[in-house]
């Protein structure tokens, strides 16, 4: 019987998680796989969501193989966050079981069918449930329960979640968040296993997508949407209409002291302080990471009006274009120094 052992890295953050998932999917066929968590020492929300999704995918792709998990029993924090249950291992708390607080939100699976059933039971629109959850996540990110920045992030997160609900064809949204007080840093990760950003945006006939990297750069332009575009049929008085500003606002706010990451298909884009980095990925859905410095919340609030104006100016320019390409993104989104 052939056996392959896969050992997780000591840290499961953005670059190591991306590398680990690619290495996991590249394993040669075997009768027996050992997934060893023994070297793991530090995890972050993004890394946990990404690796857990890929491990579920790996297991599904090897239905006849024996898969053994080792070295996970000593890891209290990821067990509390629901990481091992998200991986398909019966250990630690279930996803969403930990109570959470203003300092963290455990890995949570928000099933679309579950969301719609809860909404029906409470005689409300499913998008109202998304609104409330977006507000809770905005509180963790901003350390505030109200105010202009909280309101803006609630709106932006609502757009992200609603796009999954209505257009990704995913059956669930996964998310988690963590605040590190000593680093004055907060991170929120959101993941879905749907059809991906390129497929979603390709419904818009005015944009030209040649690669997954193109789709990511187009997605963060204001006013770019796979459903709301010139000539598209609009529903009257729809307060929930997706304007395509959610990713623009969050990506711009994150750059001011934090960072913004979006990945889909074979591409991942990381933006920090006006500089971008591209990484190879292998992921059919869409994943997003938002990072903020908590000691800069007041400064971020003061940036909102300028960002709204910048977004409106860019969207107005794009509205006049018959064919929008990814090459427009870099020059339009340069931060004003």
Number of strands: 12
Count every helix, treating DSSP H or I runs of 4 or more residues as helices.
Answer: 12
**Any low-confidence stretches, pLDDT <50, length ≥5?**
226-240
What would the CATH topology of the largest domain be? Heat Shock Protein 90
Which strand-content bin applies to the residues? 15-25%
Provide an overview of this structure.
This protein has helices at 14-25, 45-61, 76-80, 83-87, 112-121, 126-142, 148-167, 197-201, 212-219, 246-255, 297-319, 327-332, and strands at 3-7, 11-12, 32-36, 42-43, 66-70, 104-111, 172-180, 185-192, 207-208, 259-272, 275-293, 324-325. It is globular. The protein folds into two domains: 1-93, 2-Layer Sandwich (Transcription Regulator spoIIAA), CATH 3.30.750; 99-337, Histidine kinase-like ATPase, C-terminal domain (Heat Shock Protein 90), CATH 3.30.565. A hairpin with a 2-residue loop joins strand 10 (259-272) and strand 11 (275-293). Residues 226-240 have low confidence and may be disordered. With 337 residues, it is of the alpha/beta class. It has a five-stranded antiparallel β-sheet with strand order 6-7-8-11-10, with helices on both faces. It has a three-stranded parallel β-sheet with strand order 1-3-5, with no helix packed on it. Strands 2-4 form a two-stranded parallel ribbon. 41% of the residues lie in helices and 24% in strands. Helix 5 (112-121) packs across helix 6 (126-142) and helix 7 (148-167) packs across helix 10. The chain has twelve helices and twelve strands.
């Amino acid at each position: 019987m052939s056996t392959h052992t896969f050992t997780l890295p000591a840290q499961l953050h953005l670059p190591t998680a991306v590398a680990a998932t690619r290495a996991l999917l590249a394993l040669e066929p075997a009768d027996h796989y050992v997934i060893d968590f023994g070297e793991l020492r530090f995890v972050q929300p993004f890394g946990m969501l990404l690796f857990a999704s890929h491990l579920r995918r790996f297991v599904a792709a090897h239905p006849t193989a024996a898969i053994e998990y080792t070295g996970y029993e000593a890891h209290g924090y990821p067990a509390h966050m629901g990481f091992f249950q998200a991986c398909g291992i019966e250990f630690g708390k279930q996803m969403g079981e930990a109570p959470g607080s203003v300092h963290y939100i455990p890995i949570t699976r928000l099933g679309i069918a579950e969301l719609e059933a809860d909404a029906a039971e409470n005689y409300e629109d499913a998008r109202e449930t998304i609104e409330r959850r977006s507000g809770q996540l905005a509180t963790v990110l901003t350390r505030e329960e109200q105010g202009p920045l909280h309101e803006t992030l609630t709106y932006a997160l609502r757009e992200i979640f609603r796009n999954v609900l209505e257009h990704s064809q995913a059956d669930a949204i996964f998310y988690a968040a963590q605040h590190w007080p000593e680093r004055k840093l907060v991170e929120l990760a959101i993941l879905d296993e749907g059809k991906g950003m390129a497929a979603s945006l390709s419904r818009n006939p005015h944009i030209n997508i040649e690669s997954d990297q193109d789709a990511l750069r187009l997605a963060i332009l204001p006013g770019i949407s796979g459903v709301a575009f010139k000539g598209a049929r609009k529903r009257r008085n729809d307060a929930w209409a997706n304007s395509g500003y959610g990713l623009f606002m969050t990506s711009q706010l994150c750059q001011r002291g934090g960072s913004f990451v979006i990945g889909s298909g074979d591409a991942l884009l990381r933006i920090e302080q006006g500089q971008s980095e591209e990484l190879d990925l292998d992921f059919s859905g869409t994943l997003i990471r938002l990072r903020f410095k908590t000691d800069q919340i007041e400064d971020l609030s003061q940036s909102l009006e300028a960002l709204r104006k910048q977004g409106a100016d860019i969207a107005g320019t794009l509205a006049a274009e018959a064919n929008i390409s990814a090459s427009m993104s870099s020059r339009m989104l340069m931060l004003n120094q």
